[in-house]
């Protein structure tokens, strides 16, 4: 899409265990440097599992001490990542009413929620509400246009990016700060996912705990962080001489309507979602140069996604990467973080390798990139998010020159 409402990605910002900047994140991915480590989810050290925390996180310089007291850790991560994205974009160069914010989060202020149960203080409600991140970002950057929060579990971040694109296309905004954030590293969350059998609770090597599509995988590794993109009308970005990292060209969203937590076993909702995103981008599966997989490392998700990719791309083995092997699974953060990763794949012309893949599950007939990054030509790249609740979201990104 190259008309007046084509969408440019002009700013990127991240905070996660694999990197505090997009460049650090990219370096971790290409070197298969895992963010996973043993982590104590409670002060007593009774709940200890592999996780991907954000090390040495300090929001000083972004928030005052008073603001830190008013914002959950998840929101603090979000504001820092969003501020970096806005700085990377060179600012927001449209009137306040033409600016918008869309955030995605699965768990909101869950740390504040759990710590305040039974003894909430006066700031309890605003710290835990899911839309707190959207408030802080809109207030910080003078956004008086639309401000929304989406909560569709692990698809939240991708939905946020896609809906932001739709805002620009519809003429509702000219610039949107869009992304996802979650900081769910609490004992209750870890115990819940562990008892459900979805999360890795023990393994010989914590750094290799996340192993999407591997025959020996044991589940996902919980992560925290935030990732944001600045999206602009392409014509306005070019007119102001902005650096355009990539273009956002397509978006699809579907529902499985199958099961509360399990994906459709044949990946039918995922197939439809990818096909809608490609059609929206005005392209076909044959043109796709790379797939950024949802790839959680849970058996049901891996098998369903592998079948879906095989259905969409047929006998043509498109290169696939599963970055959660390095980043862990940040729930509402994940899709936005992987949108940033996909932008960098397009920009660098590389598909990063999938870490820790020692034996591909024979039921997953995929061309997984392993070992070293693989060169990819200019062309559309698709990023997938397939979530609990059967919520599916895919975005297509392409070269700035399309």
Q: How would you describe the overall organization of this protein?
A:
It is a single chain. β10, α11 and β11 form a beta-alpha-beta unit. By secondary structure, the chain is an alpha/beta fold. The protein contains 13 helices and 16 strands. The strands form three sheets. The protein has an eleven-stranded mixed beta sheet with strand order 5-4-6-8-1-9-16-15-10-11-13, with helices on both faces. A three-stranded mixed beta sheet has the order 2-3-7, with no helix packed on it. It has a two-stranded antiparallel sheet with strand order 12-14.
Question: What tags apply to this protein structure?
Answer:
402 residues, alpha/beta, 11-stranded mixed sheet, 3-stranded mixed sheet, 13 helices, 32% helix, 21% strand, globular
SSE topology sketch:
Layout: E1 7-16, H1 22-30, E2 37-40, E3 48-52, H2 65-70, H3 73-89, E4 99-104, H4 110-116, H5 124-128, H6 132-140, E5 147-150, H7 156-170, E6 175-182, H8 187-195, E7 222-223, E8 225-233, H9 234-239, E9 246-255, H10 268-280, E10 290-292, H11 299-313, E11 319-321, H12 324-327, H13 334-348, E12 350-351, E13 367-368, E14 374-375, E15 381-386, E16 391-398
Parallel strand pairs: 3-7, 4-5, 4-6, 10-11, 10-15, 11-13
Antiparallel strand pairs: 1-8, 1-9, 2-3, 6-8, 9-16, 12-14, 15-16
Helix pairs in contact: 3-6, 7-13, 10-11
């Amino acid at each position: 899409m190259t008309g007046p409402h084509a969408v440019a990605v002009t700013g990127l910002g991240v905070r996660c265990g694999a990197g505090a900047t997009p460049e650090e994140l990219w370096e971790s991915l290409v070197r298969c440097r895992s963010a996973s480590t043993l982590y104590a989810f409670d002060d007593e050290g009774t709940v200890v599992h592999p996780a991907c925390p954000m090390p040495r996180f300090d929001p000083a310089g972004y928030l005052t001490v008073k603001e830190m007291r008013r914002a959950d850790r998840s929101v603090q991560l979000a504001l820092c990542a969003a501020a970096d994205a806005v700085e990377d974009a060179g600012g927001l160069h449209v009137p306040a009413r033409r600016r918008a914010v869309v955030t995605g989060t699965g768990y909101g202020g869950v740390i504040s929620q759990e710590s305040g149960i039974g003894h909430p203080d006066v700031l309890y409600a605003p710290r835990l509400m899911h839309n707190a991140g959207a408030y802080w970002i809109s207030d910080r950057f003078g956004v008086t246009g639309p401000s929304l929060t989406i909560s569709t579990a692990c698809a939240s971040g991708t939905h946020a990016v896609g809906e932001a694109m739709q805002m620009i296309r519809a003429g509702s905004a000219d610039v949107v700060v869009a992304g996802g954030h979650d900081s769910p590293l609490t004992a209750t969350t870890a115990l819940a996912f562990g008892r459900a059998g979805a999360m890795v609770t023990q393994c010989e090597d914590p750094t290799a705990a996340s192993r999407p599509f591997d025959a020996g995988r044991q589940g996902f590794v919980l992560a925290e962080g935030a990732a944001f993109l600045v999206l602009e009308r392409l014509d306005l970005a070019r007119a102001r001489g902005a650096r355009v990292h990539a273009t956002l060209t397509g978006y699809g969203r579907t529902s499985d309507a199958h099961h509360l937590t399990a994906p459709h076993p044949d990946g039918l909702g995922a197939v439809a979602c990818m096909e809608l995103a490609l059609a929206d981008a005005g392209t076909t599966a044959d043109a796709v140069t790379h797939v950024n997989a949802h790839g959680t490392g849970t058996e049901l998700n891996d098998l369903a996604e592998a079948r879906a990719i095989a259905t969409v791309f047929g006998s043509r083995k498109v290169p696939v990467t599963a970055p959660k092997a390095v980043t862990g699974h940040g729930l509402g953060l994940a899709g936005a973080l992987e949108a940033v990763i996909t932008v960098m794949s397009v920009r660098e012309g590389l598909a990063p390798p999938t870490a820790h893949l020692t034996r591909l599950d024979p039921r997953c007939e995929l061309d997984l990139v392993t070992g070293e990054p693989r060169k990819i030509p200019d062309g559309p790249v698709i990023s997938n998010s397939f979530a609990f609740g059967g919520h599916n979201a895919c975005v297509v990104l392409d070269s700035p020159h399309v």
